[in-house]
Amino acid sequence: MTLKKSTPLALIALAVSFFIGCSSQEDKDKYDHYYGSGSKSREETALVALQNERRNQPAPAPAAAASGQGAAAPAAGDSASAGSGDAAIGQGGAAAAATNPDAAAAPTAAPAKRKPVPADVSALLNKHACLACHQPYDKVIGPAYAEVAKKKYTSDQIVELVHNPKPEHWPGYPPMAPMAHVPKGDIVVIANWINSL
């Protein structure tokens, strides 16, 4: 008797859960755009752009200045072989660095801006696996923290973006998974460090 009464209720519950589980076409399209077939092309585009950017980075200035004019030509050849449209600019910059010691000192100032990660922040980044996708100054899967700092987000905005990411803020990157399990206090510590970059 109980089985006869509970069977229709179970079928109704199953139908309701199926109805609730099926979302609108708009939601399905958004999901497909960020996580489905649209994500593959976006990830491939971001990967190609990252590889091209790494290829087009200039050779380290101390090596060019130490080895003189001979090292300047291969460095310029590397940028030309990478398909850079700025090959002539790269050759002129390398030649100027090799002949003018003051010009060679200027490119070395850029890496000096890289501040070390404080121990407490590093511990939080490791604890919550942030470093799997983000690095302080280099692109990995997601943007570098230095790029995030350029957006001038407040700490509260960063907390919201970690808990509820907005992929439209970072075109060219795969969407970040919501990290709702990360405590707000930890994110605020990380956000304050990001904003100090």
From TrEMBL:
Positions of the Cytochrome c domain: 116-197
Indicate whether Oxidoreductase appears among the record's keywords: no
Q: Region Disordered: start and end of each range? A: 54-92
UniProt xrefs under InterPro entries: Cyt_c-like_dom, Cyt_c-like_dom_sf, Cyt_c_ID
Keyword list, A-Z? Electron transport, Heme, Iron, Metal-binding, Transport
The residue ranges flagged as biased composition, category Low complexity, are: 62-92
Q: Which domain of life is it from?
A: Bacteria
- Describe the PTM: Binds 1 heme c group covalently per subunit.
The molecule here is called Cytochrome c domain-containing protein
